Amino acid sequence: MPKPPNYAARRMLVGTGIVTLVFAAAVVGWRWFGGGESSLDRDRVGWEAIALVDRGTGDVTYVDADGEVTAESPGHGRTGSLYAGDGILALANSRTLTVLPEPGDDAEPVVVDLPASADIATVRTDGPTFLAAGVPTGGDVSLIDLTNRSVIDIGGLALASSPIDPKMFLATLRTNDDGSMFAIADAANFQTIVVRPDGDAPVFLADQPIAVGDELVATSQTVGLQADVSLMALDRTTKATVPTDIPAGSIGVLDGDRLTMVAVGGEVYRIESGNDTAERLGAIAVPAGAAIEWVAPTAGGERLAVGGATFVAVVDLDGRTLFTTTFSNAVDPTPPEPTWTCFPVGGPGGYHSIIDLESGEQLADLATVEELAGVSADGCRVLGHVTADAVLIDPEGTAPIGEYDRIVLGPDGATIVRVLDGETDLIVVDDDLQVGEPVSLTALGEPDDLIAFVPE
Q: What is the C-alpha to C-alpha distance for residues 88 and 68, in angstroms, rounded to an integer?
């Protein structure tokens, strides 16, 4: 008789995300518009180690693909969550974020003090991986560069040049593709603060940021039922200021001096340096009674994904809709990551499919998936909960993994750590979706250890 899933355990923090019980929903319809060549010929993201972390002591054990211990880093204190990128692991509790050196390196950890009730967000770019720490009620925000193990205190840098203490929210943080420039809204001083990891002094611009390029920042100021959208250089010269519909999600994509944005009504606009009007490129078909709830740049800034409770659409930077689907009831779709090349469409209310972000083509059906327990670093493989088991799904087919209490998928989409009945196993699935024999990790830690793959 199948073992009933342990829903309480799955709601615990696993790696860097929270896995939540969901239910399937019927898909009303979807369309693929055939927007380009497929991007499926891609290399998988590798990983350097698996980290097993004792929740009480913060002892870290690093394990390789053979289940052998490669390094240890003991005594970092009580740990509630893990963050990883660029060969670096960070441990967080309610008071501190501890950024460790690479496995086997004897350098001292970097310890960042956190404000009470701090939120930590992972910011993935084509360059380094960053963490951003701030509070839900607004205040100071810090950027932690995992690659260089360095910290940028945005509020601290901006304080001397601000009339009053800056008040920033993580939701307004924007970056360019390679993470060389960040902008964030300062609600207290009605300005944008721009910082560069390799720079010194911050730059201050008017209004709220919606997109960051390599040399320009796009900002928006709401004026009644419209917005004034500007393209600003870092010397505060204005390259364009254009009245337009309000940008949905206060976000867009800035490629060189060309901004592509989606308005709250679904219209897709382009604004370039020297423009005095916005060029309408097309429109997303927002279902009747629905509203755009998020806009997410993805595919390395080459696509914009747009979602609401009952729909998802993907457009290219020429405003062409590559994919769209609607759901019969609210599923609250999850936005894609900026670096994904595929997109598992759906959310806590149900799932639709994995699509190719280059072409919009549907690659794999997810209609039977009740929840996602993991997604590969490129978005092209998912670990789904189907009935009572975990199933690995990609464009080539499926691989049954079986029952689990907790489970973590590696960034390569091929390596899995499963906890079941107090036993911890490492499982590898090959390119033919054949499941290898489990390698036991049970003797290396406790069943409730936090688990994270440390990407290369």
A: 19
